[in-house]
Amino acid sequence: xxxxxxxxxxxxxxxxxxxxxxxxxxxxxxxxxxxxxxxxxxxxxxxxxxxxxxxxxxxxxxxxxxxxxxxxxxxxxxxxxxxxxxxxxxxxxxxxxxxxxxxxxxxxxxxxxxxxxxxxxxxxxxxxxxxxxxxxxxxxxxxxxxxxxxxxxxxxxxxxxxxxxxxxxxxxxxxxxxxxxxxxxxxxxxxxxxxxxxxxxxxxxxxxxxxxxxxxxxxxxxxxxxxxxxxxxxxxxxxxxxxxxxxxxxxxxxxxxxxxxxxxxxxxxxxxxxxxxxxxxxxxxxxxxxxxxxxxxxxxxxxxxxxxxxxxxxxxxxxxxxxxxxxxxxxxxxxxxxxxxxxxxxxxxxxxxxxxxxxxxxxxxxxxxxxxxxxxxxxxxxxxxxxxxxxxxxxxxxxxxxxxxxxxxxxxxxxxxxxxxxxxxxxxxxxxxxxxxxxxxxxxxxxxxxxxxxxxxxxxxxxxxxxxxxxxxxxxxxxxxxxxxxxxxxxxxxxxxxxxxxxxxxxxxxxx
Length: 512
Ligand code: KIV
Ligand code: ZN
Hints:
alpha/beta; TIM Barrel; Double Stranded RNA Binding Domain; 3 domains; eight-stranded parallel barrel; three-stranded antiparallel β-sheet; 16 strands; 41% helix; binds 3-methyl-2-oxobutanoic acid; binds zinc ion
């Protein structure tokens, strides 16, 4: 609520705003994304857990699968209202209503550009079509949400006329789409303020991110009194995407003191699910959900964070279901290295830790990333290799693959015992991971709860980074990471790093 006092001197902020989630409609319109009905259902269930107020589940006229997905979501009995999109056509509205939705979102463009080149309609014809469609949708007994597509490039007087027509025809709420991300916060503020006066209905905004302003524009709409915000998880959507749900919600809660129904702790889980099922990966530096959003490397920052996290974190990572990460690298300082060594059970005196730090910096100067496993190797160089006392180590990994899949054979030393296992998978990474998990399952119950592998673009020196989250013996979660050149080996080392942390912590943080 950092700015609530200042904001309330300028604006009358709504107490609460509704989140209209369009991940399954506009988000799915991301080029290259197509979800099956089952995947849409899985995301809808998670969106409901997240606490969105309205789920725009799809555009039912598009295809049979799309109709089924929306209809299946309606049958789930979620707390969120379910909405479907329809053009101002009876057939679209019927297809939407027949799925069993609570809300129908009808849209017709109002800008001269769209009227002339796409709809080939006069302004008068557009007004008639809006009125007819809204009345028809209302007659079918659903809540009607009208969008004036390309509102922000529509001449202001005509836009107000169109919104009034929709409102008079019975629309329950009115949406102002910034279809091509053309608005700036001030113009959104102006349009929302006028729309509220002209229609007297709840106002929504639907902002696209073509200029990187979708979140700022959505927040400007709230400042002007908008009660409904359209957003997508991870900001996915047409072209540069839609306003990102997680950014808007966290800003509203933290900076504005405006409530939503969102359970912030579910944010990261939802982001990961959407990334996994859509295949649209989240950039590392993305606010709230990016891998680096709560990661710290530089010496000054890590020192501050270890003193008090609020020095360099605007919110605690746990608030949004995440964890803080301290990373070793070129910019590290002694406090960060000390912390990481202790975390890996590699407690050592300051002089030795400084030696480790110098080696970490030298690698950084060569442009290399220092993963958990690399840090451990460096530490072992400094204090001497633990030899047989090492709790878990890889003895052998061999993988053969062809176009049908891959076969992996792994040998691990766990304590004094060598365990070997073989497994088949669709590719070398999956086969290796599966052989590894089979082998360790003989000693402990390891579940892989999250998994990420990134590779830099092709070069003779391809570098991969893997990060895994493991639950061991159904208790605490452990993160393991590794960097290297072979994807299968990197993933195996990341899992081993996670298991080793768990073993060390259950052995009481024993130093190697
Ligand atoms: O961006 C847009 O204008 C839309 C409408 C269908 C609301 O997605
Ligand atoms: Zn859109």
